[in-house]
Each structure stands twice: as C-alpha cells, then as structure tokens.
Design brief:
about 350 residues, mainly alpha, 13 helices, 2 strands, binds zinc ion
Amino acid sequence: MALVLAGYLASSAPAAGAFGTIDSAGQHREHERITRASLSCSAAVGSGPACLEAASIDVLAGHNREFGGVGAPDSDEVFDPAAHCDGADFLEGGYPRTRAEATAALLDCVGHLRMRLGEAVVDAAALLDDDGQVVEDEVDLESDCRGTEATETRAKCATLVAFGRVLHGVQDFYSHSNWADEADPTRPIGADNPPGLGLPAPSPVLDLRSDTPPDVPPALSTGCFVLRDEVPGVGECEGRVTHAALNKDNGLIDPDTGGATDPTTPRGMVGDDFARAVAGAIEETRRQWRDLRAELAVRYGEDDASVMTCALTHDDPVDDCRDRGWSRVLIGGLSGAAVLAVLLVVHARRRRPA
Ligand SMILES: [Zn+2]
C-alpha cells in the first residue's frame, strides 16, 4: 500500500509542482528541454566546448521515461519546498507572513541547492584514480543511472544526478518566482497577481559558490504550494500568493534553441512571462555548470578538474580524456627525469678528481 501511495504521489503530484518532468498532465518535459537547450552538444545555441554528448546529457536531462538528474526532485523530493524554491511567498502591505519568514524559506532553498552542489563536487573525486586517470567503472553508462545516491555508486552518475538536482531548483526559481516576470497589467496587484520584478539572469540570489546569505529584493516572492494548489489559496495557503497564481511551469520548449511558446498557466500567459522564465532558467543553468567546473578546479586543481569535466561531458571518456590525464603524468615524468639528470651531473662532478 505504501508503495502504491508513493507511486501515486510520485506520478501525480509533480503535475502542479514545477516546470514539468513528465510528458502528460499538462507537462512537456520542460526541465529536460531547458537542460538540453542549455548544455547539450547537439543544441543549436551556444553550448560551448564543455557541452555534454548524447548519452551524458541523457543522464543529466533525462530521456524517455527516465527522470534524469534534473527530474530527480520530482521523484523523491516532491514535497520538500526547498528543492523547488516554493513557499517563499510575500506581498508588501498586510500579508499573512512577514518578509523575514519568506526570506528564510528562500534561504532554505539556496542552502539546499548549495548542499547539492557540494555533493556533486565530492562525488566527482572518484572519477579519477591516483594518477589522475579516468576510472572506467566510474564512467560506465551501459545501464541507466539510478536517481538516488543510496543505490547508485558510479561517480559519473552520482555527480550528474546531484548536479541535476541543483539545476532543477534553479530552473524552478525562474518559474516559481516573480524574479524575471511581470504582473498582469489588466488586474490590480494582490495575492492573485503579485508584482513582477523583471530582473535578469543569472540571479545573485542563486550564487551557490558563496556561503553567505544573498541579498533578497523586498518584493521577491515564490508561491505557497500544497496538493490543492489553487487561486485563491486554500488550507495552509489561504490568503497567500500560491504556486498556482505565480508559476510559469508549462508550455512548449524547443530543446535545440530554447525557444518557448504556447504557455498554459495563467501567469505564464501574461506578456512573455513564460519565455522570460525559460530564458532565465537557461542562462542560470549555464552559470551553474560554469560554477561547478570552477569549484572542481578549486577543490582538485586545474588539471584534475579538466579531466573530470572531460569525463562528465564525453560519452567515451576512457578514450577521449586519456591525453589530458597523461599530459599531467608526462609532465610529472619529465620533471622527474630532469631532477634525475641534475643528480647524475652533480654525482659525476663529485667523482671527478680535484
Ligand atoms: Zn520542481
């Protein structure tokens, strides 16, 4: 019974929870498509040299029925508001919650995502052996990666799943908050139509490399979320800005170009709010990928970080990333040979008669 219930919750609740993960119930795999448009080598726009090849982006973005790293929070963190940046709702002028409460909820989300980024950095260590070489078993993608750390031991899977959870949260921030959007100009401002901030991405609120609390704009709001996600809010969300009122979760996203059309949620249909949320999520996804690589360099040094990035992005890293690892071994070997040569010369001079 518990399993049936868990299955039911996992399959039904995300319908209202976030940018979509599945391809039904009004969702069109929005997280997957945003992630592909941002980081896939096959995407048409600016994916750059550190783009992910086909099988590797599948692990991060999900494919077919696999949730992938970016979808993982919709399978086992559905009701954790920190995983989706929910519950940081606030409206100026007589509101059931204080600004401090809303900010605390937002900082829960930031803290949660910092924790996930840290997990990805730690998990990456096992990609390489002591010589800085890619470990074949750790990058094997013959079978699909499992979404939870308890059952997944391959370093590439664990790293990309933890990082995918980061991406899920930061993408939700643009859909679930008023950071980048605008209010409906035809209706008065209120809990059913909070102000939009129209701010650009990436957001300083989502600086996950820092360990200090970010500055939060006083009018920033996300939505209160309960299973009965409605406008006006019910139960715990009564009188509050709800996820239903503010989210821009659903519409069609082109995984090649990131183009966003056909929004279906009320806030998403205001002006170009859906396209703004998607564009912000793509920009932010790329920033977080740069930041993960920067953290790998801080933790493990530039050389190992570059092999780790190669291992995470290439589908055949054992062959493709060997040169990078060996160049380090080679440099190490050459400097060892140079030291040896100097010692031999010194030794030879000593033996020379005075
Ligand atoms: Zn979500």
